[in-house]
Amino acid sequence: MSILVINSGSSSLKIKIFSDVNKPAIVHGSLEKIGEEQSVLSCQFSQKTINKKITCADHYEGLEQFFSILKQNDALLDIIAIGHRVVHGGEDFSQPVKIDDNVISVIEKNIPLAPLHNPENLKGIQATMQMFPSVAQVAVFDTAFHQTMPEYAYRYAVPNSFYEQQKIRRYGFHGSSHQYVSKEAARILQKPIAQTSLITLHLGNGASATAIKNGKSIDTSMGMTPLEGLIMGTRCGDIDPGVLLFLLQTHTHDKLDKILNKKSGLLGLCQRNDMRDIESQDTRESQRAIKMVVHRVQKYIGSYYAQLPELDAIVFTAGIGENSILIRELCCANLAHLGIELCSDKNGNTSYGEIQKSHSKVKILVIPTNEEMEIARQTHNLINA
Ligand code: ADP
After folding, report:
1. Does the active-site annotation cover 142?
2. Residue 288's domain is classified under what CATH number?
3. Of 58, 149, 229, 283, most Cβ neighbours within 10 A?
4. Is the domain of 263 the same as that of 321?
5. Average pLDDT of the chain to the nearest whole number
6. What's the pTM value of the predicted model, to 2 decimals?
7. Is the pLDDT reported for residue 36 higher than 90?
8. 280-307 pLDDT per residue, tens
9. DSSP letter string over 277-293?
10. Same domain, 118 and 190
């Protein structure tokens, strides 16, 4: 009895198969550069790995090729449900749902809120519904975990009609990741999740921070779109809206969209967006970029600390959070007055678990994220409910 998880990005597809939702996936697949001259497919089974270049015009073709490989390797025999990552559920979904025509039309309705992501997620859903008509399909939304935010945290201070008519508000993203690491953190802290308060820092190419009070998201740094908040690989994060008004006088909407989403962040500051390269450079630009990233993270730590009645732990996750000893060290530097004290030795030697000094009031945790496992668990729980 296995669960297949599908994560369709704008030009990529990731799949995982879980035979037990509490154990690592038994199959990992990824397909990159969909729609380009050559796409790169990789599929890892327990005994073998397949890597090949294929031609693949769209997500439907990509899934067909994946499923043919999975079939040849008997990996599809006992799939009982398929969990799909869907980026934007708007205000309509605070829980995973079984996909039917109504759910599809609501995901379509939310396309204006995530024009780059929801159409690709829908392609994955529609393709698998045709290929597996009798298997239960479940949508797990990136935004769902943050639906517990109070109104004063999710509303923007613009005229009410913008919210009432166009649903302009903070939604937040990376929900499956923040939820997954928060549960893992509670397990490490040996506290019930409903009594655990955390600041979770998902620092990857996309990055977001979340304040979690008693297991629930009460504030998060990404907003109506994934552009707000922390400084990211290619996204600017927080910026004075006046800058956009100023730039709109000389830039078209499309150009500005591209600049802020694809040419800003680390890439805009030092011509590269891989933190490993930036850390290895010793230039003024790279040092300034690192200082800016860390300054922004600390702003959020302070802001979220102030919103929580107590703070059990700060959690680092995703590519940078899990791997960058330097960024973790700098993000926790000079916070002893807040009871946050990182141990450099543990920080340098730990890829999972606690890295604070023994007397630090607040724990500091490194927890590798596993969004697909969270999606598999939620899919499993829903179909067994
Ligand atoms: P995505 O948002 O694309 O899922 P990831 O969570 O995979 O991103 O994070 C990717 C980023 O993690 C890379 O851009 C790279 O900068 C960073 N990263 C990975 N390993 C390290 C490392 N050892 N040191 C610093 N940064 C790292």
Report:
1. yes
2. 3.30.420.40
3. 229
4. yes
5. 95
6. 0.95
7. no
8. 999 999 999 999 999 999 999 999 999 9
9. HHHH--SHHHHHHHHHH
10. no
